[in-house]
Amino acid sequence: MKNYQAQFCKIVIILVSVFSLSSTVSASQKKDSFKVAWSIYSGWMPWGYATDNGIIDKWAKKYDIKIEVVKLNDYIESIIQYTAGEFDACGMTNMDALTIPSVSGVDTTGLILGDYSNGNDAVLLKEGKTFTDIKGQHVNLVELSVSHYLLARGLDTYGMSERDIRVVNTSDADIVSSYATPDVTAAAVWNPQLSMILDQYPDATAVFTSAEIPGEIIDMMAVNTEVLKANPDFAKALVGAWFETMQLMSANTDAAKAARTSMAQNSGTDLAGYDAQLKLTEMFYTPAAALAFTTNKTLYNTMDKIRKFSFDKGLFGADASTPDIVGIELTDGKVLGDTSNIKLRFNSKFVEMAKNGEL
Question: Which element (helix H / strand E) includes 138?
């Protein structure tokens, strides 16, 4: 695992060094054109729908800007490209926002906390019915991602450690096909890959899920903080488009069913399959719900767990001697870690504006 960590960090450092000068100059300037990245996940499918159905363009036009929303097939690759300055915003989890862009020096803001995984992530076994049966097995997952975090939380819950298993790094784009091979006996995955595996392999058993650690795996739209400061209209357009899509898809109407059907098809399932995934996702369909979660004091404790896990795994770099090396600012101004090196922030201002009808 240490070899993978070193290689991963090296890639990010190279990318950031190549793009840092140009991205720093452009990030702090006002502009009228923006790029947003997202990847396939049940909680992020609304971004694709909003793009394909003119909702993004509608809100961009309202603020006289242009927003290009791009789907990338590899989740980690989307965050690496964001970190390198190729995108102004990107769909990512709270942990990955900390361990990739923020640790790499890219000041990042959680603009929209759209949901948390409440069963959408799981550890699967081909044989065995309880988590303790994982002992001695190879576990395929996207190493150092939230899947790795979920596995670690499961191991800790059952009095085990990574010494009891072996992690095998596997891309999210390959995890379903790899599960079919005889060598793969255990995996940690998220939806829609989770549903695909369970559908194709009825003997697969979910022995630990994110429902057992509710509120810890958070899915959000992260924005470059410098871009956000210089271009608040960009944030307003994203928030406005998001909650218009949330209102549409959550209504009890034929239009809502059509919207979710489109999202389902784009994620490789049908309406029933996608609705089943949404039941495992604590979606914040209204600005009020998103605001309540973002400003809840529990987020402080969650991020404290995340940063300590990340430090323990070496994700802050070989030179980091403490999890305090990176500062994390919560919506109430409290900071976890170094107050002079804040690189991850949670901003509730624009969601609150949506709640108050001010967008």
Answer: strand 138-141
Give dist(CA 169, CA 188) in Å, integer. Answer: 10
* Contact between residue 190 and residue 175 where contact means Cβ atoms under 8 Å apart: no
Q: Which residues contact 144 (CB under 8 A, 6 or more apart)?
A: 4, 5, 8, 99, 313, 315
Mean pLDDT on 284-294: 98
Residue 301: strand, helix, or coil: helix
Name the residue among 72, 358, 107 with its Cα closest to residue 229.
Answer: 107
Give the CA distances from residue 248 to residues 187, 214, 244, 274, in Å, rounded to whole numbers and listed in that order: 35, 26, 6, 16
> Which residues on adjacent β-strands are paired with residue 314?
none
Q: What percent of the chain has pLDDT over 90?
A: 84
Reduced to 3 states (helix: H, G, I; strand: E, B; else coil), residue 341 is coil
Q: Are 88 and 224 in contact (CB under 8 A)?
A: yes
Residue type, 53: N
pLDDT per position as a tens digit, 147-199: 999 999 999 999 999 999 999 999 888 999 999 999 999 999 988 899 999 99
Angstrom distance (rounded) from CA 338 to CA 345 = 13
Q: Which range is least confidently modeled, 159-173, 210-224, 305-319?
A: 305-319
Whether residue 214 has a cis bond before it, omega within 30° of 0: no
Amino acid at 94: N
Q: How far lies 117's CA from each of 5, 121, 249, 355, in Å?
A: 25, 7, 18, 23
| 19 close to 84: Cβ distance less than 8 angstroms | yes
Rounded (to 5) percent helix, strand, coil in the chain: 50, 20, 30
Per-chain mean pLDDT for the chain: 92
Sign of the dihedral defined by the CA atoms of residues 279, 294, 266, 179, in that order: negative
Neighbouring C-beta atoms of residue 265, cutoff 10 Å: 13
pTM of the model: 0.88
Q: How far apart are CA 259 and CA 247, in angstroms?
A: 11
Contact 6, 14 (CB under 8 A): no
